[in-house]
Write a structure and sequence with these properties.
The chain is an alpha+beta fold. The protein is built from 18 helices and 57 strands. The protein has a nine-stranded antiparallel β-sheet. Strands 3-2-4-9-6-7 form a six-stranded antiparallel β-sheet. Strands 33-32-38-45-44-41 form a six-stranded antiparallel β-sheet, with no helix packed on it. A hairpin with a 4-residue loop joins strand 25 and strand 26. Helix 2 packs antiparallel against helix 3, helix 5 crosses helix 7 and helix 6 crosses helix 7. The longest helix has 30 residues. It is elongated, with a radius of gyration of 32 Å.
């Protein structure tokens, strides 16, 4: 007689029947809620609007909060049974103890989620393994009327019940689930598959009723298959419990703090039930919130960390974007992140944890290696559209040659269900399994979902070494990386940036946030430098604690869903308000520091002391109270400008202030015969450049008067401002947006102006409901054409760009990134080239031939396009999701075209980018009785090589030593001398964490340094 064919559909129906019988509701709980618009403390839990609730009753609107009180009694009939509560408020809920400390998080079962990874809901609260009957239920919980992803899910109470948990059925369900899914992934004709299916088939006949006897018999039958072990493993999977936490996204920051409490309290409860469970979490910012808001919960976390059950992950303060932040900001992410984990937990972080960031700058490997970070984990590259990254395990090499061992979990998710399908996918998809015996699995539900649920942990108990699957071991990711590193000589190298072929819109979305970030990064650099001068010259205390506080808030807003522009409107309403406050405070501190220094400078009352924080002498026009002067300010120093020719001795060299005759603006025009502008003739020129405009006031000619070279190709237009239809969201721009054709803008008004050494045209554009005013400016003695722009932007589903075709032929554009530059192709030969249509650059992008080039500079923009001979800049975009009013506001920004002799290195284009972003600053001298011991001009720091930039001067984090950070800008080997006029004693080369490595000695007052291409060097100077 033939065997009955086993149908998996029949077996799946068995699973459904078992699942339905795990819990038996007994009685409803009494539910009372106190509703508020914003969270209130446990002490104020009864301060809101009080309502009594039954299942189906509505309690709130989106983002409402409520304290819930659940009360009742375990029925006597449940005596001896395992008792649980089933609670679902159609939102997120955190149960607390009698002191208000979080004990467990619950999530509505209908929350938005990728259901292919499992169900997100957590609704079960364990009360008693064996009830006595008549136990009182008295629980409080803090709720938010939103699901995991900020969705409104009716705002009603779904259920609140006392129930019996049939533990025997509960265990049998997971036995059957794991076996059925294992069989489903095995080859059709395998003996292992046939035996599993036959056992499940026989069990289904036993379970025609779910009596204790039949359940026990079926469990014994299935146990025979679960007990079968694999042989010597070819691949071992390291599994780490995970709960990826976006610090803001589709919810505000205040909700993230509560999501953290729900998640971490759930993790602690699960650890009590599952002794093998290892969980990990990154982001010191999140831990710090727990420390501040939930100190008792934080203490429990620290206990589990010490025990080894809880892994601290990642070296950064937050999981930051890496495209837009400055190099120094990325260093501070790691500096503050590592210092926090070291101070609070006594652990040094050796890995970077970045599962969800939108691409990775090629500067990062050097920053990591010089911060003591050897490994990196991500998986976001699996989202790329056109090309598949060729490795899951590889060495990532940065622009300087530094390498970091990098791993991407081959399951391509950080929300693994830890099911047999997860294990099979990891093995099948792992692109480096031919040279590696290990890969990583991150399992759990993130963004407030509590991380792993019982389903993950029950499966893993059965999958440790189950025949038919690769073995899975729960362990720290650090242990995984140590094993992975053993075979590192066999792994391939990926050189350059890790470009994500998606989310290029985030280089432009929420432009005001990006502008504030740039301004604050530059202002913080200025403040640290100024504060060092004030402390060294005047004894003014260095504001170390306030600087750290401000830096950490700026770093928070660099989180990968805030700074890129992909969060809801409320996130930006709040961050913009805070940015303004922070910038005002930093500017105040800068002024106070420079005023303190100026008090010691030998100068007459009413003179201006002008400060230059950049590491080269700057000769510029400077305006003060309506008067213009041509000033020359020493590198990282100051000079007194008083309207007359002045010479002053400095410790490094003689500095000259060549002052043009001080004139009122109204009388200044006659001083500049080479300067002219005419809106009627549509021209403007200075002593170096001549610019001609078309009738629509695009630029049709730029003549380099010194070389007689035309910069704009015949018949083409530069600064062609165009509006494109943009149906993308905050993340993505359609790759083919240009095919629909942009709408060129034409000014409604035009006029010429002259202001001292500046001439230009004032253009007013009106389009849709928006208005844009742009000043096109030339300055005497400058090759820079500035486009100073103000926009009152009210457009929807539109993108504003400008483009500059130039008479340059080059197959690559040089793009400034952190601590260097990256060359990107101007052609689209391959699909890899085509995918990189929108690219990131910081202060400049450049097209150059060997003897001539053109750079496009900016003061707050990041999205660029380099196609053949055209440099294109993305200025604004107004998408409808997740912020329906994105960027519909007033904007200020400047971009500049800079034609130059030589290539971008010979022309020192990086200096022009810094000069646009870092203005000279001045202090007006007041009468003072204090001793003025400083000369009229002085350089505090200087470098004798034009390709070395002093990026940072600050006080050390652990004392009053001085930290100086420099980097090589041109991509070459060189030797340079650093002169520091600070009377310091000892000096060391350090890592980026400011830990001394090698002692260095001054020779004739200078420190001799040898740089490799794009190398970052950090010097620590001890006080004498």
């Amino acid at each position: 007689m033939p065997y009955e064919k086993v149908r998996t559909e029949q077996l799946k129906s068995l699973l459904d029947r078992l699942k339905e019988q795990i819990y038996k509701p007994l009685t409803d709980l009494r539910v009372t809620a106190w509703v508020t618009e914003e969270p209130v403390s446990y002490e104020d839990r009864e301060s809101g609007r009080k309502i009594e609730l039954a299942a189906g009753d509505r309690w709130g609107n989106l983002w409402d909060c409520a304290w819930f009180h659940f009360s009742g009694k375990v029925p006597q009939e449940a005596k001896g049974s395992k008792i649980v509560l089933l609670i679902d408020v159609n939102g997120e809920l955190c149960l607390v103890d009698e002191e208000g400390t979080p004990t467990q998080g619950l999530t509505n079962i209908n929350s938005e989620f990728d259901y292919s990874l499992g169900l997100p809901g957590k609704r079960v609260v364990h009360i008693s393994e064996s009830a006595q009957g008549d136990e009182e239920i008295d629980l409080w919980g803090d709720a938010g009327c939103n699901d995991l992803f900020g969705r409104f899910r009716s705002g009603t109470l779904k259920e609140a019940q006392v129930a019996i948990c049939h533990e025997n059925i509960h265990q049998l369900y997971y036995d059957a689930e794991v076996l059925l899914e294992t069989a489903d992934r095995l080859p059709e004709g395998s003996a292992r598959r046939a035996r599993i299916l036959q056992s499940l088939y026989e069990a289904s006949h036993i379970l025609t009723s779910l009596s204790e006897e039949r359940v026990a018999k079926a469990s014994k039958l299935l146990r025979e298959q679960l007990d079968k072990r694999g042989g010597d493993p070819v691949l071992t999977i390291s599994a780490v419990g995970h709960a990826h936490m976006d610090l803001a996204w589709l919810w505000p920051i205040r909700e993230t703090i509560r999501k953290g409490a729900r998640t971490f309290s759930t993790v602690l409860r699960m650890m009590e039930r599952y002794p093998d469970y290892i969980f990990g979490a990154s982001q010191p910012q999140l831990y710090d919130w727990m420390k501040i808001h939930y100190p008792k919960l934080y203490a429990s976390i620290k206990e589990r960390v010490q025990e080894g059950r809880w892994e601290l992950q990642g070296a950064m303060w937050v999981e930051s974007d890496t495209n837009v932040p400055s190099g120094e900001a990325l260093i501070r992410q790691i500096l503050y992140g590592k210092r926090y984990f070291q101070a609070e937990f006594g652990q040094e972080m050796k890995s970077l944890w970045m599962p969800d960031v939108f691409g990775y700058t090629a500067s990062l490997p050097q920053i990591l290696k010089k911060s003591g970070v050897d490994y990196m984990m991500t998986q976001k590259l699996s989202w790329s559209i056109y090309n598949r990254h060729p490795h899951h395990t590889f060495h990532w090499e940065g622009i300087d040659g530094s390498r970091v061992l990098t791993h991407m979990p081959p399951e391509d998710t950080y929300n693994s269900p830890a099911a047999p399908r997860s294990i099979v996918k990891a093995e099948n998809e792992y692109m480096d399994k031919n040279v590696s015996e290990n890969c990583l699995m991150l399992f759990g539900i993130g963004d407030g979902g509590g991380g792993p649920g019982e389903e993950h942990l029950e499966r893993l108990q059965r999958e440790k070494n189950l025949l038919g699957l690769s073995p899975v071991v729960q362990e720290h990711s650090s242990q995984f990386f140590e094993k992975l590193a053993v075979g590192s000589d066999r792994y391939q190298v990926w050189s350059g940036e890790l470009y994500l072929e998606r989310h290029q819109g985030t280089l432009t979305s929420q432009a005001r946030n990006k502008r504030y970030n740039r301004k604050l990064e530059k202002a913080l650099r200025e403040l640290e430098y100024a504060a060092v001068l004030a402390e060294r010259t005047k004894g003014k205390p260095y504001p170390a604690q306030e600087l750290e506080t401000i830096w950490k808030e700026v770093l928070l807003y660099q989180f990968h869903d805030i700074l890129p522009g992909s969060s809801i409107k409320r996130v930006y309403d709040e961050s913009l308000e805070r940015y303004a406050i922070l910038l005002d405070r930093v500017e105040q501190l800068i002024s106070e520091a420079y005023e303190a220094v100026a008090q010691s400078v030998s100068a007459e009352k009413g003179s201006e002391v002008i400060f230059n924080s950049l590491s080269w002498d700057r000769e510029e026009w400077y305006e003060n109270n309506g008067a213009w002067q041509r000033v020359r300010i020493p590198a990282m120093g100051y000079a007194v400008a008083n309207g007359s020719l002045a010479l002053a001795e400095t410790a490094a060299a003689e500095a000259e202030i060549a002052a043009a005759r001080t004139q009122e603006k109204t009388a200044a025009n006659n001083l500049f015969p080479d300067m002219r502008a005419s809106a009627i003739d549509r021209i403007m020129e200075n002593d170096l450049l001549s610019v001609t405009f078309a009738e629509d006031f695009t630029i049709i000619s730029i003549i380099d008067k010194e070389l007689g070279r035309e910069i704009i190709p015949h018949g083409q237009k530069a600064n062609e401002l165009s509006l494109y239809h943009d149906e993308g969201d905050a993340w993505d721009i359609k790759q083919d947006y240009r095919l629909s054709g942009g709408v060129p803008l034409e000014p409604a008004e035009s006029s010429a102006f002259q202001d001292g050494p500046m001439v230009g045209l004032l253009l007013v554009y009106r389009f849709g409901q928006s208005t844009m005013t742009q000043k096109v400016i030339l300055t005497q003695g400058s090759r820079r054409i500035d486009f100073v722009t103000n926009v009152d932007w009210k457009e929807s589903a539109k993108m504003l760009r400008t483009s500059f075709p130039v008479n340059i032929r080059s197959d690559s554009a040089s793009c400034e990134i952190q601590f260097g530059y990256l060359k990107r192709p101007t052609h689209r030969n391959t699909l890899w080239d085509y995918a990189k249509d929108e690219i990131c650059a910081h202060q400049w992008i450049d097209l150059s031939e060997s003897d001539y080039g053109v750079a496009l500079l900016n003061d707050c923009k990041y999205g660029h396009r380099a196609w053949q001979n055209v440099l294109d800049l993305n200025l604004l975009r107004s998408t409808s999701y997740p912020d329906p009013e994105a960027d519909q506001a007033e904007h200020q920004f400047t971009y500049s075209l800079y034609p130059h002799k030589g290539d971008h290195v010979q022309a020192e284009v990086y200096k022009r980018g810094y000069e646009l972003n870092v203005p000279l600053r001045s202090v007006s001298m007041a009468a003072s009785d204090e001793a003025q011991h400083l000369p009229a001009a002085k350089s505090f720091f200087s470098v004798d090589h034009s390709n070395v930039m002093v990026e940072t001067v600050k006080q050390a984090e652990d004392g009053d030593d001085l930290i100086i950070r420099l980097y090589e800008t041109a991509g070459t080997h060189l030797k340079a001398k650093l002169i520091a006029a600070m009377n310091e004693a000892d000096a060391w080369l350090t890592d980026l964490m400011e830990t001394p490595i090698d002692r260095i000695h001054a020779e004739e007052g200078a420190y001799h340094l040898a740089f490799t291409p794009f190398e970052i060097k950090t010097i620590r100077l001890a006080r004498r």
